[in-house]
Amino acid sequence: MKILLLGDINYDPQPGDDIIRRGTDIHDIEDNSINMAICTNLPEVNRSEIMSFLAGLYDALVPEGQVAFQVPSAEFAAKLVYTNQFNSPAMFMLYGSSKRPFRVCYTMAALRAIIESSKFQTIEAKDDVVTLSSGNEKIEMPVHTLVVRKV
Amino acid sequence: MAHKSRPAKRPIVDIGIPCLAYQAQGWWTSLSGLLLSEERYGKIKIGTIRASSSAIPDMNKNATVGGKRFSDVDENRRTISKNFLDSNADYIFWIDDDTAPPQLAITKLYNSGHDFIAGLYFANSTYYPVMFKRADNSFGYVSIVNYTQGELIEVDGIGMGCTLIHRSVYEKILDGHNLYRNRVGALIPIPKSAVLDKEPVIPKDFMPYIQNGIYQEPYWKTELKPEENFPFYMFHGGRGEDVHFCELAANVGIKPWVDTSVLCEHYKIRSIKESDFIDKRLKSEGLL
Q1: Distance, in angstroms, between A137 CA and closest chain B CA?
Q2: Confidence of residue B241 (pLDDT cuts 50, 70, 90)
Q3: Partners of residue B261 in chain A, C-beta under 8 Å
Q4: How far apart are CA B259 and CA B131, in angstroms?
Q5: Do B150 and A124 touch (CB under 8 A)?
Q6: ipTM of this predicted complex?
């Protein structure tokens, strides 16, 4: 199975998996070639380039191919700001890091709207909590997980 | 003329509406908008509109005119289900006569690829979402109130006010259950996996009893009578008939999904919307 990983993702390949890693530039990926993609770097894509990025990802998938998007929850981060709990996890959720700055952050509704307008069909959309580690420091971060398919 | 984005072959969706003798004016407008939008732009084909009505306000659950009222059974839904299964339709889309789905709701639910999926509406008095998970204490169900707007999630129970169900769900329920009758003649569907009996012998004078907290009552295996339909929808143990259906589906490995982006209005004394629930939630969190 040909798997495309977009973002800083730890993935344990299974026998037979062909792993391709890219950043926000996927123009060289052949059309109808990817069985599954995991994308955690959507917030790093410039606002003006999001639709072409998603169109490229759609074209790269085989029919019925699936993509799992995962982005920090803008609702949760905004709630922290609104209730004066503006800490480093909230900063990261809204702005990313110096190495990977975020250009856009997404609510679940906004994420679905933009992805469904790129012809993807949503199979599952739910909130998860992921654990991020930097050295000995670990933080738990609410994220939106969206699983979509190409029709 | 059909919209160019519509596929050539579209699944047939029957519309099931258990209803009272009257509806709110806004509901008719919404229903017309839904059907017209599906016909014009949708990816499904509207089949038969199956309405079964009651003449008295009995929660629109039982046909009291022209049909026998069976104890504990939503006869309206059962009649509609029977006629749907006898047709060539692929799906049935349930609407209550007080829930108003948005335009293209059926197509959006169909696009998810799930065989059993609902839109979201909100209860009259509490404004809580009509989607449930089993309670942690194992008694009954609780509303899922901490959802994120836009989620598309698997749940334990839903209402039937905006619900798309593929016929395979009904067929798997039929295949996966045996029918029994209790002492008063009520039909009880029991999952085949839960039937441990080989050749049961029930004494004629058997009286129900409780032992070690488990209620013992004789059930006799049975078949449907000509005037009966399979009891997909029953009122039992304080649950709604819709939650009973969810349990039958769960018995055969199918759980309902809810697309919280398909938001319905719920016509009561006034129209209940998601904004009513969000206001309540923000106030409870001290954010409003």
Answers
A1: 28
A2: confident
A3: 109, 112
A4: 10
A5: no
A6: 0.89
CATH of span B12-167+255-284: 3.90.550.40
Pairwise CB contact (< 8 Å): A109 & B150 = yes
pTM of this structure: 0.90
Helices B241-251, B167-176: inter-axial angle, 10-degree rounding: 70
- Relative to beta strand B177-181, strand B187-191 is antiparallel
**How far apart, in whole angstroms, are the C-alpha atoms of residue B146 and residue B260?**
12
Distance CA B230, CA B213 (A): 30
Pick from A27, A79, A150, A133: which is nearest to B287 by CA? A79
Residue-wise pLDDT tens digits, B120-145: 999 988 999 999 999 987 678 999 99
Domain boundaries, chain B: 12-167+255-284
Interchain pair A124, B113: CB under 8 A: no
Helix axes A88-95, A74-82, angle to 10 degrees: 130
pLDDT digits (tens, 9 = 90+) for A92-110: 899 998 989 999 999 999 9
- Is A121 in Cβ contact with B111 (below 8 Å)? yes
Chains A–B, number of C-beta pairs less than 8 Å apart: 47
**What distances in angstroms separate CA B274 from CA B121, B127, B165, B183, one per listed residue?**
7, 8, 23, 44
SS3 A49: helix
A122 CB near a chain B CB, below 8 Å?
yes
